[in-house]
Write a sequence for this structure.
């Protein structure tokens, strides 16, 4: 698989470390009433879809940036690559 | 029809006109006591043990394709019980004991071959860890034997024991481990279950569960609605997809594992060798092909095929300790989809929905577990209590912090 890095261009996927579902960007609120349940689900439960999947890839052997890659788990086709930083900021993080 | 040497002789003399299909092509009935989803090794074994050991009747196995067409036909056929942790070792040893008597019980030649398995050691730390594991195995009634370098050289003279990065210093052997003809396991269990009245229904895909007031009443399928008092799911690889029909999220990711077979060679490799440090393991099939593999690819996939970086990694591991493999040509390579769980161990448990039971999360170790998985799942379905050897394989272990994490990797499925 070739991942089209937004800053570096096309890179081989073996340069990256895979970290799973991009929903992991949204860490639950530890102050919330249901924090124990929310962290259990965050840490252990996954949607694991067959088809399009947004997932985190870490460019460990490159510029060490985190990416959100939209990839089809049935065909390994990649349709979109974003910097995880941009995704998090668009959701109001790091303000 | 019982199979025997006498029967083979009789059929040989009478033109082989007496052989009959090993199982019926059953059509679904409107209702069953127990419906098992998944006609793979675990599902068929569950049906066999439900009928044989737990006196259950009115059982159906639903398979979306043909039986044995999933992971039980795509694995590398190794059986062993060389685990460390208390939650695992009694279960896998129970499984190995069931393998040892399987062919007599099934009256079917599954080619169970206890040719031994060897885990290679390359450092003092690894020797300590494997000594501890061997002691845990012996404490649980399994066999374990630490081999010296001289003993390994005598048994396997072709191994490169002087690799610069991973010189071989010894090994942990389990002589009762070995290989089994994987398709015959599915066929043998299917034949036995069928002869005890189990309906094996192929080309019957489950499209939904009928759940009313928290109770599972039956399953919707491509061949109509089938009512069931109890429904057991055994579709490892696709567990998340199936259980999502019951609105369940699982502690599982699906990953692809590749396997390889060389052209047929004369006998060169007696037993199974695992080179864990180099991500490579190998055995030789009775047909002569060297059967080998390595790590999972490491990303979510349902594609049943992998990518080249892992092919390269496996082949590098092979060449490091097994240089003669470089002369063999590759005949086939393929991928299978694994239920990679959050601690690397399986789940055999009730769900929060009454009447709905789950068996999955086998990672890449489901084949060796087939008999015990079937037995334990049958025990759970028949008695509503976990089998003693599978009592740790519960859903709530993640919530309660009782993970069974052999490799100590944490909740990162692609590292198990």
């Amino acid at each position: 698989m070739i991942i089209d890095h937004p800053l570096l261009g096309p890179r081989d996927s073996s340069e990256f470390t895979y970290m799973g579902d991009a929903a992991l960007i949204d860490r639950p609120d530890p102050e919330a009433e249901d924090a124990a349940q929310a962290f259990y689900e965050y840490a252990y439960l996954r949607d694991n879809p067959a088809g399009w999947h947004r997932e985190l890839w870490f460019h460990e052997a490159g510029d060490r940036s985190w990416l959100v890659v939209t990839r089809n788990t049935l065909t390994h086709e990649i349709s979109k690559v974003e910097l995880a930083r941009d995704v998090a900021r668009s959701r109001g993080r790091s303000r | 029809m019982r199979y025997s040497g006498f029967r083979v002789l009789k059929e040989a003399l009478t033109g082989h006109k007496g052989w009959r299909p090993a199982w019926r092509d059953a059509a679904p009935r409107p209702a069953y006591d127990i419906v098992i989803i998944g006609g793979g090794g675990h599902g068929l074994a569950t049906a066999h043990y439900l009928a044989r050991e737990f006196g259950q009747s009115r059982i159906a196995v639903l398979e979306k394709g043909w039986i044995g067409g999933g992971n039980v036909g795509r694995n590398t056929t190794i059986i062993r019980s060389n685990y460390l942790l208390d939650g695992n070792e009694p279960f896998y040893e129970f499984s190995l004991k069931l393998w040892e008597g399987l062919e007599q019980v099934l009256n079917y030649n599954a080619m169970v071959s206890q040719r031994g398995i060897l885990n290679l050691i390359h450092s003092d730390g690894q020797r300590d860890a494997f000594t501890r594991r061997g002691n845990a195995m012996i404490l649980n009634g399994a066999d374990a034997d630490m081999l010296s370098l001289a003993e390994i050289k005598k048994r396997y003279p072709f191994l490169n024991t002087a690799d610069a990065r991973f010189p071989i210093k010894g090994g942990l052997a389990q002589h009762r481990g070995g290989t089994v003809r994987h398709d015959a396991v599915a066929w043998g269990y299917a034949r036995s279950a069928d002869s005890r009245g189990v309906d094996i229904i192929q080309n019957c895909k489950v499209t939904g569960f009928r759940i009313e007031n928290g109770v599972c009443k039956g399953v919707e399928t491509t061949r109509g609605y089938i009512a069931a008092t109890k429904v057991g799911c055994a579709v490892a690889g696709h567990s998340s997809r199936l259980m999502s029909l019951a609105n369940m999220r699982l502690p599982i990711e699906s990953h692809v594992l590749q396997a390889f077979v060389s052209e047929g060679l004369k006998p060169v490799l007696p037993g199974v060798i695992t080179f864990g440090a180099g991500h490579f393991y190998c055995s030789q099939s009775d047909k002569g092909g060297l059967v080998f593999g390595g790590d999972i690819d490491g990303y979510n996939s349902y594609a049943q095929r992998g990518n080249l970086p892992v092919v390269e990694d496996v082949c590098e591991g092979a060449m490091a300790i097994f240089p003669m493999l470089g002369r063999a040509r590759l005949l086939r390579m393929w991928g299978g989809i694994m239920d990679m769980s959050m601690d690397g161990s399986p789940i055999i448990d009730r769900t929060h929905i009454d009447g709905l039971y789950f068996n999955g999360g086998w990672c890449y170790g489901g084949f060796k577990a087939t008999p015990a998985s079937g037995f334990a799942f049958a025990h759970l379905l028949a008695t509503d209590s976990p089998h003693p050897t599978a009592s740790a394989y519960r859903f709530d272990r993640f919530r309660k912090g009782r993970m069974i994490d052999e490799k100590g990797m944490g909740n990162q499925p692609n590292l198990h």
About this structure: Chain A touches chain B through 25 residues (CB under 8 Å).
